[in-house]
Design goal:
- By secondary structure, this protein is mainly β.
- It folds into 3 domains: 54 residues, no CATH class; 47 residues, no CATH class; 87 residues, Macroglobulin (MG2) domain (Immunoglobulin-like, Sandwich).
- The protein contains no helices and 20 strands.
- A hairpin with a 2-residue loop joins strand 3 and strand 4.
- The radius of gyration is 33 Å and the shape is rod-shaped.
Length: 228
Amino acid sequence: MTDTDWNITLQTFIQPIELKTRKEKGKIIANLPLINGLTEGPGWIRLSKNKTYFDYPVIIKNRLPLDKLKKIYRSPKTVNPDSNLNQQSINYSTDQYSNLLLVNKNYFFEEQLHLNSKTGTYYAIDKDALSTYYVQSGTCEYIPIKMKERNKDNYIIKIGPLTDQYQNILADGTMIKILCWDAKSTFSMQAYSLRGIANVSIPISHSRNYLFMAQINRVNSSIINLNQ
């Protein structure tokens, strides 16, 4: 039997690693190359020759101590204050090769958190993009509306600022349904908020006494008379 009769590899969950072998006193001695940063955990040594192979289970462990990196996972990632401001936080630590590390006899620590209602992008760990979570604005609570100006051609109506129950500005692009009517006819249109505000132009008709109202979902503004 020669060293090339058998092929010996370390099988991991990521990839096989070929071992260095030598023959000594009728035995094959296999050595792992000086590699650090392997995925730790169960693996197996595979001894193969042609179509014959034998597997021997092993536990893979890095030789050198590795850096400890704190990780935090938040769920849900996006919180809507209309329904829930609670979040689950799962804390754990890994090395730089993503191997889980045992901390105080546990791999994971879980806690329930109550979040601030202010909208924004937050980091569970400073400057760690993977730890980000979001508080988004809820539904419209109230629709302020007033005549902003009147020129020779149009009424300019200001709608907003639009906020949720926690005074967060509604998301840009929130759709606003506009209703305008008099005794003879009714017409509708749409507007979209930007930074919580929408300005709407209504053509002037001196012969009509228009009433105007804005709607967002089931919330209605007060009714204003455009000719007053």
